[in-house]
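Is this the right way to post structure tokens for a design question? Let me know if I should format differently. Anyway, here goes:
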């Protein structure tokens, strides 16, 4: 069976270099907020062409800190796409702010200026634009504070600084995946970056002086060292993802894929099927595993469905029909051929 993702292959790529890094960190006695993290922050900011990167404990934490540093707080309403990973919405709730879901576009699965205009209320302060599956969504024309959830979009965004702040995740399956949890807040605004650095460590501005109420959002040195090993290969990995999905699209052009985009970073390769159960069974019998990202829209999630949302029929249709097929840089050519053939066979 071709797996949707196989992290052991990624692990093997970096295992021996990582063993040396782990030894170095152990001997240094500096386990948190040390040289590895500070080097990674510089290197990732450079890779993105951004001015500031603050490494934190997770993508969810990065979103929460980005929102907070951008001035979002209790009672503020924040628009989120109705079709996204749940942490996009829970980061809003974690601040005592209120997520309000708006619909997504049928062909990109991302929000549009129109869907935001249709969902905005007089209480709305901000919008989180999610670059879902690695698709580089256009930023809306709006006066709202725009925050980018780039958890799935390493390599998709050529233009950091279009919004005031972006949040990345280094969850192990991501395009730049860690050996544990991790995330980053990326911005060109030096003051905002400084606020995030303070909020990352319990709101502390000097030794044991806490200017703000916050929590622990630190990234470990071990995680940062792993990410430094993976970062130099990220551009090639993203190219490989694009080449894999190009093959799938060429083999099965009639499937309903996201609209093509040259900068799509293909964290996931997703198409839609009106009869998902049958399609997944066909894939399985051809030796291809599949997954669902995500089975419920935010409007349908038990934790969020009682909030007030805009009508989100397109998001709910995506949730009912999406299927993710294997897409990771370590796939062999034989595996790519196998998935391509299975996809080509679906129409028959
Ligand atoms: C779109 C999106 N936002 C936020 C997150 C949260 O990231 P993390 O799992 O690193 O907290 C994820 C990852 O799961 C995600 O895919």
């Amino acid at each position: 069976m071709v797996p949707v993702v196989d992290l052991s292959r990624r692990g093997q790529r970096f295992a021996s270099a990582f063993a040396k890094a782990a030894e170095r960190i152990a001997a240094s006695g500096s386990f948190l907020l040390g040289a590895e993290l500070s080097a990674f922050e510089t290197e990732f900011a450079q890779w993105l062409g951004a001015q500031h990167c603050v490494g934190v404990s997770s993508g969810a934490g990065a979103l929460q800190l980005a929102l907070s540093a951008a001035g979002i707080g209790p009672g503020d309403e924040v628009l989120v796409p109705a079709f996204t990973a749940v942490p996009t919405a829970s980061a809003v709730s974690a601040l005592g702010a209120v997520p309000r879901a708006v619909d997504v576009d049928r062909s990109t699965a991302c929000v549009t200026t129109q869907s935001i205009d249709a969902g905005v209320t007089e209480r709305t302060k901000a919008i989180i634009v999610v670059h879902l599956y690695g698709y580089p969504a256009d930023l809306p024309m709006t006066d709202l504070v725009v925050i980018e959830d780039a958890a799935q979009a390493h390599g998709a965004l050529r233009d950091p600084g279009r919004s005031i702040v972006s949040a990345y995740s280094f969850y192990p399956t991501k395009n730049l995946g860690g050996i544990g949890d991790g995330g980053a807040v990326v911005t060109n605004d030096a003051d905002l970056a400084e606020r995030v650095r303070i909020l990352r460590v319990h709101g502390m501005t000097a030794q044991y002086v806490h200017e703000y109420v916050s929590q622990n959002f630190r990234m470990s040195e071990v995680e940062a060292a792993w990410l430094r090993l993976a970062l130099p290969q990220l551009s090639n990995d993203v190219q490989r993802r694009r080449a894999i999905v190009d093959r799938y699209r060429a083999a099965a052009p009639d499937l309903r894929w996201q609209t093509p985009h040259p900068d799509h970073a293909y964290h996931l390769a997703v198409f839609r099927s009106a009869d998902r159960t049958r399609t997944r069974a066909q894939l399985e019998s051809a030796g291809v595993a599949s997954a669902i990202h995500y089975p419920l829209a935010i409007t349908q999630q038990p934790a969020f469905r009682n909030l007030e949302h805009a009508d989100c029929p397109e998001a709910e249709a995506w949730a009912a029909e999406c299927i993710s097929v294997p897409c990771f840089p370590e796939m062999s050519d034989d595996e790519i051929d196998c998935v391509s053939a299975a996809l080509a066979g679906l129409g028959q």
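Format looks fine. Someone answered above. Worth noting: The first helix runs from residue 7 to 28. The longest strand covers residues 124-130.
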